[in-house]
Amino acid sequence: MKVLNFDSNQCERVRRQLDAYLSNELLVETTGEVLKHLEACESCSRELEARARVRGALQKAVAKQLVPEYLRAAIHERLRNARPGFFRGFRATTWALALASLALVLVAGQQWLRLQRGRQLVSSVLTLGVSDHLHCAIRGHNYPEVANPPDQLRQKLGPEYAGLLPVVQEKLPGFQVLEAHICQVPGSPRRYIHFIARRQGTILSVILTRREGKSLPEGKFLVAGTPAGIDLYRAKLEGMGVAGFETNQYFGFVVSDLGQDEMVQFAATLAPAFRNALDGSATTETDGGFGSVRSVGGRVGHPGPSVTISSCGAPILLVAEEETFTFA
Amino acid sequence: MFFHSKSRVEDFEAVALPHLADLYRSASLLLQNSPEAEDLVQEVYLEAWKSFHRFEPGTNCRAWLFKILFHRLHHLRRRLIKASRVEGFSDPADQDNLMAEPPVPPEIRDDDILRALAKVPPDFREVVLMADVEEFSYKEIAVTLKIPLGTVMSRLSRGRGLLRRELAEVAGLYGIRPGSERKREGRLG
């Protein structure tokens, strides 16, 4: 069927554009031409109205379509149970990179934990020296205002450790050694050799105590320096600067309220000298030596006839108690 | 750990769920099957959620959802329905009779126009729906359906014409000369 109720080329051209006109897809100029024609052509105007009416009716009818109530809830539920797609698009290489990164993070984390654990161990050892310095030299004030004579100090130290006195005097320039003795911590079998020195009001302790098989942890990030092949450690604990080192059988500490770096400098000169003196004698310890004295708490032993053991009062509990010292 | 946070789902729902009604209605009219439409829309939302990390906030979420809808719809059609193709569609009307406009009833009932729409072949129906109901631009339709702009225009023109012809048939007006629709003289065979 052909129904041609127009005979104008203009009408034909306009009607071809009516769909685009309805969809607002015509250029402004073309829209103007169409509007101009529609004003003059009743037939085309009716056609536009018919098309617009169908379009409007379709929109209205579709809008009345009801969406099932449960559909929104069902989607809501499925979304919460669905795995998000962030990783779905990952290719094998991406996964490999992600896993490698994860492994790197794990390794770094493990190293960090080891470092933290190492720092804790260093602190737990250096705490010994700080504790001894505080409750014997600082709070106990177990030193005279005028330095005891060297002979008296050597006697207090006993033959095993008397030889260390000149070493301390030599390696602490500017300091005067006021006191030297062997201390015992009450309630604990641990004892320590204690040198107390002074420089312009600053009290400094040099302390040696047996390692009892314990060690300072290794690790380049933990060590403050390695003069003469001896690792030095440092910390600031209870307001005190402390540097520590170890010989074959002893921990050595230099403690004062001076800075950590200065303590490290003193420890750097003391450590090799102590190692030579102590390790040389370690294999020839006698019953009168400190090694035997140390065993008083658990076994039979005595300090020897010429050695006086000082008691320095109640032990001070610092960051780490002895029970926490667990070395691998 | 892998970003399945509640707030992210809520972000997605906030931008995507407002278009649920539009998506469902289009799916329903294109499939002519409500349960299938419900399933399809759910799948659309799941797929959109899974690729939500690629969605750029502020861009056209509605167009994005419709693109997914039609992608899945076409896949569904190819696989299951084997819907009639444009090439195979036989238009009983004279292709040359461009200007022979079928009559439009003075009052168009919702049922009539929806029944008429259901008779329009899917490839035309979807363009009519996108342009006339969802009011997407030709360009958006071309991108969504992955067809050339010219094809959008020709399908829309044909689709509207077919809808109108089917509407006339449904309303019993087919064959009435334009300008005499009100007479309702019946349809010509």
How would you characterize the overall build of this protein?
The complex is a heterodimer of chains A (328) and B (189). With 328 residues, chain A is of the alpha+beta class. Chain A is built from 9 helices and 7 strands; from the N terminus they run H-H-H-H-H-H-H-E-E-E-E-E-E-H-H-E. In chain A, helix 1 (9-22) packs across helix 2 and helix 7 runs antiparallel to helix 8. Chain B is mostly helical and 189 residues long. Chain B is 60% helix and 0% strand. Chain B contains 8 helices and no strands. The longest helix of chain B has 22 residues, at 149-170. Chains A and B meet through helix 1, helix 3 and helix 4 of A and helix 1, helix 2, helix 3, helix 5 and helix 6 of B.
Would you spell out the secondary-structure blueprint of this structure?
The complex is a heterodimer of chains A (328) and B (189).
Chain A (H helix, E strand, L loop, with lengths): L8 H14 L5 H13 L1 H22 L5 H13 L10 H47 L11 H12 L2 H8 L4 E9 L6 E9 L2 E9 L22 E5 L2 E7 L3 E7 L3 H23 L7 H5 L14 E3 L17
Parallel strand pairs in A: 1-7
Antiparallel strand pairs in A: 1-2, 2-3, 3-6, 4-5, 5-6
Helix pairs in contact in A: 1-2, 1-3, 2-3, 7-8
Chain B lengths: L5 H11 L3 H12 L2 H17 L10 H21 L28 H10 L2 H12 L4 H8 L3 H22 L19
Helix pairs in contact in B: 2-3, 3-4, 4-7, 5-8, 6-8, 7-8
Widest β-sheet, arrangement of strands of chain A: 4-5-6-3-2-1-7
What class would the helix/strand composition of chain A place it in? Answer: alpha+beta
Biggest sheet statistics of chain B? none
What oligomeric state do the depicted chains represent?
heterodimer
Name the average pLDDT of chain B. 79
Strand content of chain B: under 5%
**Annotated CATH architecture of the largest domain in chain B:** Orthogonal Bundle
Parts with pLDDT < 50 across at least 5 consecutive residues of chain B: 83-99, 176-189
Approximately how much helix is present in the residues of chain B?
Answer: 55-70%
How many strands appear in the DSSP assignment of chain A?
7
CATH fold assignment of the largest domain in chain A: Phosphorylase Kinase, domain 1
Counting DSSP H or I runs of 4 or more residues, the number of helices of chain A is: 9
Largest interface: A-B, 50 and 59 residues
